[in-house]
Write a structure and sequence with these properties.
Blueprint lengths: L2 H4 L4 E8 L16 E8 L2 E7 L5 H10 L9 E3 L5 H4 L2 H8 L4 E5 L6 E4 L5 E2 L6 H7 L2 E5 L4 E4 L2 E3 L18 E4 L2 E4 L8 E5 L2 E6 L6 H12 L4 E7 L7 H13 L4 E5 L4 H11 L3 E3 L5 E3 L1
Parallel strand pairs: 3-4, 4-5, 5-8, 14-15, 15-16, 16-17
Antiparallel strand pairs: 1-2, 1-18, 2-3, 6-7, 6-11, 9-10, 10-13, 11-12, 13-14
């Protein structure tokens, strides 16, 4: 990618609108899922990106009111992957925003039929019929398998390539149904939002199902920038064994990442080890957390 054309941001502020945890007596709600309001400042002005929309619209909109965020002020929505704890609030948010043709950036598999079978058959994705509802509510979908610039200094990293060896097997067992045939879901369609600043990259990932180290390496390859200013989001190590957690923490540390700000599906053991490795440069996300880069 041509960095001169991609541009760079002059500043980024990330406000956690929805997360699994909320601070005591904050007036904010917690819900399993994640939604981040990302304000991207560039020489051309400021754009507000809503990264994922949580599991349902009611707590998302409640927290927006508490945080004095007008849904209509959001310029675009970035969806990391199809799972409902990241997309369930989308239609309700769009209806509250009351706008038309709000860009929705995602991977082409956003509307795939995704499901799990334990403890019983259950859909975990938006499903093929959801696209009409999104468009009727005012969303205009931009589905790209390849890296997609969404403003100067910000892009969808697109679908990742081969995983680093220890991240080859997803930590979530799920399936997809395609033309009547079920298959194990590789989860390679999750896309990260990559923010390019003068000091390096901020990699924002919803669940990191392809592996956070694989995602970081992909972001560096796509942009040509090798400095990692921050890693933000969920790492889905909650079901990982200790060996994988150790290798993940070591690889993130070896990357030179300056800040690690995670929560949601990361898991308490991985959070503890990241805190030990990064000290004050580690942040455990919760509803209302504000990060500045």
């Amino acid at each position: 990618m041509d960095l001169e054309r991609a541009g760079r941001l002059t500043g980024v502020t990330i406000t956690v609108v929805i997360e699994d945890m909320a601070a005591y007596d904050s007036g904010l709600l917690g819900q399993h899922g994640i939604a981040l309001l990302i304000c991207c400042e560039s020489k051309g002005g400021t754009k507000r990106i809503l990264f994922d929309t949580g599991q349902s619209a009611a707590p998302l909109l409640h927290n927006m009111r508490e945080l004095a965020v007008d849904p209509a002020s959001v310029d675009m929505v970035f969806l990391s992957h199809c799972h409902l704890d990241h997309t369930g609030g989308l239609v309700g948010f769009l209806e509250a925003a009351g706008k038309t043709r709000i860009p929705i950036i995602a991977h082409p598999d956003l509307f795939k039929q995704a499901f799990v079978t334990e403890p019983g058959l259950r859909s975990i994705g938006m499903g093929p019929g959801s696209q009409d509802a999104v468009q009727q509510a005012g969303g205009e979908v931009f589905l790209s398998r390849q890296p997609l610039p969404i403003m100067p200094g910000a892009l969808s990293a697109g679908e990742v390539g081969d995983a680093v060896p220890f991240e080859g097997t997803p930590t979530l067992t799920s399936y997809v149904l395609s033309q009547g045939t079920p298959a194990r879901d590789s989860l390679r369609d999750e896309v990260a939002l990559v923010l390019i600043l003068e000091q390096g990259l901020v990699v924002v990932s919803g669940c990191s199902h392809p592996g956070i180290v694989t995602t970081m390496e992909h972001a560096m390859k796509v942009t040509g920038v090798t400095e990692i200013l921050g890693v933000v989001g969920g790492l889905h190590l909650v079901q990982a064994d200790s060996g994988r957690i150790d290798r993940t923490v070591e690889a993130i540390r070896d990357s030179g990442a300056r800040r690690v700000c995670v929560g949601h599906c990361t898991g308490s053991e991985a959070e503890m080890r990241l805190r030990q490795a990064f000290g004050e440069s580690f942040v455990r996300l919760q509803s209302g957390t504000v990060l500045e880069f």
